[in-house]
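Most newcomers find our protein records easier to grasp once they have seen one. The structure tokens are whole numbers drawn from a learned vocabulary of backbone shapes. The record below serves as our worked example for the rest of this section.
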Amino acid sequence: MSHGIFGTRIIAAPMAGGTSTPGFVTAVHGAGGLGFLAAGYKTVAAMQAEIAAVRSAGARFGMNLFVPDPAQLPPSPAVRSRLEDYRAQLEPDALRYGVVVPPLRLDDDDYWDGKVQALLDDPVEWVSFTFGLPGAGIVQALQRAGSTVLATVTTVDEALEAAGQGVDALVVQHPCAGGHSAAFQPQPTGGGDNAGGDNAGGEGVPGSTAGLVTRVRAAVGLPLVAAGGVTDRAGVDAVLAAGAQAAQLGTAFLRTGESGARQLHKDALASPHFTRTGMTSAFTGRPARALVNEFVRDHPVAPESYPAVHHLTAPLRAAAAAAGDPERLNLWAGTGWRQAGTGSVAEVLAGLLD
């Protein structure tokens, strides 16, 4: 059965930080899905090495890039002051592990220019963007190089802006998705620094992914990928019926054998100790959905300054992982985390494909 431009109804989300390894993406392809590598947090050379590894395996794949926020390069004096305050608040966490909270780093654009140029010089089949839009000029250049370009959006207004830049397709992300929100336009109040309040958990998140797809479908004529809260065949069927050509899943694959997620993260997803998810900016400075642990509860308000906060907490997260302490680790998880099973990528996909 054809599934539009993607050739499959299942896309494995690009999960930065080590989860979407070349082996994982290759396994997704081998089992009938489409996987995306994640360029976030990597050097240009590391991104290129992963591209080469997946190509050598003969897999179809895409590459996802984080779009830097010009307002954070550098942040305003007011935001910088809040960052210094947050840095001081992190000192007790650092003392717990005998590490040092680093000085502020305010110049990180994730090697943006180099990554874009590398993808123009050596194109991949699919390029997707998260945290913003790359600009019409970059979209057109990538298309001329032979890539199909996707933008990740969270609202109808973001979808309209992305369509205006000429992208080929949209990833429509609902707030119940695990990990970072892709939102890049101002959001309604109550989104970013919520550490498990009214929007925490599955039933507390307003609306549905299928409903969001329906609204975006009515506003733009582009192919859509539905992301957020899709964990089983019924969920896939629902978003396809709403107008998506494919469903993008991340949390559902986290515990698979091929996933590069830390074992500590995988185990936490199955632990009865964690009972809900919440949106938090405490780990990175961008709203992200995670299992609510002690770190999330201890830091209910954090500066919305990405990636400056990411750099502040990186040594703490690394130390927590080394100590086997899930209470200080960023345990990204969508609202359907309880359905994430072990086994292979192929076993998970077998329950989702036609």
